[in-house]
Amino acid sequence: MPSATDAIKQAVREKHPGRDDLEVIGHPKYDDECIARPPTKAEWRMFIAKRSAPAEAPIANDFLVEACVLWPEKAERDALFERRPALLDVWAGELGEMAGATLRASRSKL
Question: Which domains does the chain have, with CATH numbers?
């Protein structure tokens, strides 16, 4: 899949005016990119609930990606995930960071 060109980025911005939280998520080796927004509080809680439920855990990342990825369209994503299935999990991980999840938080003595 090609990268998100300037024209694609502009089209997504125009389709979602006023959003300053859109980001391009890319793979370091492949040209597979998406444009996404961070999950809402409700979407994040649903993701956590799905991830915690044994029957739904396998589709938790699918839910998050479907909710937040604005480009490429679903059919293109599905074709891409057939070729590189782990990419779905990579994108979901980045969406988690966009939601504020991190392993790199800092803390210090007061």
Answer: 6-98 (3.30.2220.10)
